[in-house]
Amino acid sequence: MKTGISGMKRASALALVLAAGSAGAAPPPAQPRPTAAAADAFVAQAERALHDYSIDASRVAWINNTYITDDTDALSAKYGAMGTELSVRLAKEAAIHQQVDKVAPDTKRKLDMLRGGLVLPAPTTPGAAAELNEIATRLNSAYGKGKGTRRGELINGNDIEAAMGTSRDPDELKEMWTSWHDNVGRPMRQDYARMVAIANQGAKELGYPDVGAMWRSQYDMPADEFARLTDRLWNQVKPLYNELHCYTRAKLNARYGAEVQPATGPIRADLLGNMWAQEWGNIYDVVAPAGAGELGYNMGELLKAKGYDPLKMVRTGESFFSSLGFAPLPETFWQRSMFVKPADRDVVCHASAWNVDAKDDLRIKMCIKVNGDDFVTVHHELGHNYYQRAYNGQSYLYQTGANDGFHEAVGDTIALSITPSYLVQIGLLDEAQVPSADKDIGLLLRQAMDKVAFLPFGLLVDKWRWGVFSGQIKPAGYNAAWSALRLQYQGIAPPVERDDAVAFDPGAKYHVPGNTPYMRYFLARLLQFQFYKAACEQAGWTGPLHRCSFYGNQDVGRRMNAMLAMGASKPWPDALAAFTGSRDISGDAMVEYFQPLMAWLKEQNQGRTCGW
Questions:
Q1: Torsions phi, psi of 154, nearest 5?
Q2: Reported pTM
């Protein structure tokens, strides 16, 4: 499984407070009569408090994620509660200072961040923050310790995800999918409902209708306008997804027969090579077009043939950034990161990137396997680290991405540049093995099976949570609503009938129990193509866009670093314009990248009944 849709970790293992702020030191004193000067002083004090505590909180979170025990769970919950309590107090005071006239623009921006930047705000009710964090810690750890079964034998999350990508036995796939969703998701249902209730109380105290509205407020535009933006972006790329879905369903029908996968209607969720049907690249062998489908090389085989181990994969990822002019990673990165799954304990394998001291204590946490997916994921996670280091000169609240989609997109932009020509440059691929132009459809289809297939999933996870937080989706309807959105947007259905009275399939996806907002990944899938196209134009690339690699171009690196160094100090359209020249997020660059594939898919789908 490609965990490139993973995210950055900084202050809290549970992401209970803004990436720019966990806290625990004594809060700045309340100002009885707010003035512009008092607002400035409050922001400065708040940033110091948040920074000071974030270091210890990050260390506790790191230990909990890399050594899951009852004790580390307890410590993580304690620090999470301390951070949440202070962050809520700061948010409430920020709301008071927001009422002051003539506050400096920089102060106003930081006040907005302090008020709305919590992921799960606790109310001021005594004990609420502790309960909220205990639940969140329990959910996070339950996922990390979760197991499914394969052929009747227990199998951990990292291994079952990998097996979903390689098995072609529909009965085995059904067993793995069902056992994982039942064993991991179902027990979380009651805790999740309670957590939502507590956090919504906290959001209301801060002046938001609910937690979902608070999340949507963090995009330099009104919450409702942001929701409309996501719908507009989806409509730009939906025709491409629909054609890919139609083609893939026909190939699965040909492979498994109508009893397993009918020729019409939704696709069976467990057949797509991924536990959540979010990326389909693992079944490329099933859908590869005759003639054009054989690329001539397999990334995993290339890595193994050249003697790559997990550490060498990370060193290679670092070398890409070095080729753009970025400084090497600090020695502590190599000493403190977790590159492989320890044999003696439970850990959270989900890939993440960390900056523990908000300066240069950069780390990644992965359970790396020597395969193509993890090679790409390494590049993605390092993108977070280089972004974290680029903005470490900003004041603390600005030490995050221009918006959360930017942070995810940077590493994926680099990953798009892992083209055959790049593989030749780093000695992984012989020149004679570079696919010829007649293989372009295969190259594009392989990319689309991950990049395009992900889009509706990237959209629906938070659409579901927005509905949950708003109360539109009640606890009794959690699972039915999840399945309905999966059908509506992805055109997929579970391999077995679900008992919606007890099932909690959303909990089987890390980001739900881990409380990581997910719309960032949808935005990132589109932003990465905008960044990539801009980088290729800056590098003077004149060939097909999907063949471009800007490896070694330090001019691109300088321009990219200028955007990264801004952090969140300016509205995200300013950061986007700094690198791409455009102030609007758009799906147009992705559509352009895949245009040859779109034309080919339409030809292939003639005579088929598309849609579901």
A1: -65, 140
A2: 0.86
Instruction: Mark whether 511 is an active-site residue.
Output: yes
The DSSP output letter for 122 is: P
Residue 352 has, within 13 A of its CA and on its CB side, a CA count of 25
577/65 Cα distance (integer angstroms): 37
Question: Of these residues, 380, 381, 384, 546, which one is catalytic?
Answer: 381
The owner of tokens 């977790």 is 338
Average pLDDT, the chain: 92
Compute how many other C-beta atoms are within 10 angstroms of the C-beta atom of residue 235.
Answer: 10
CA–centroid distance for 451 within its chain: 13
**291 pLDDT tier (thresholds 50, 70, 90):** confident
- What pLDDT shows up at residue 408? 87
Could you give the CA distance from residue 553 to residue 548 in angstroms, rounded to a whole number? Answer: 12
Indicate which residue of 245, 384, 511, 546 is catalytic.
Answer: 511
DSSP string, 510-549: TTTTTT---HHHHHHHHHHHHHHHHHHHHTT--S-GGG--
The more confidently predicted of residues 140 and 18 is 140
444 within 8 A of 501, measured Cβ to Cβ? no
In the prediction, which pLDDT does 29 show?
55
At 286, the amino acid letter reads V
Angstrom distance (rounded) from CA 78 to CA 134? 8
Cα 55 from Cα 75, distance rounded (Å): 14
- The number of CA neighbours under 13 Å toward the Cβ of 76 is 28
Weakest mean pLDDT among 39-48, 89-98, 454-463, 596-605: 89-98
- Cα 608 to Cα 611: distance, rounded to the nearest angstrom: 10
Closest CA to 26 of 97, 81, 90: 90
Look up 47 and say whether it is catalytic: no
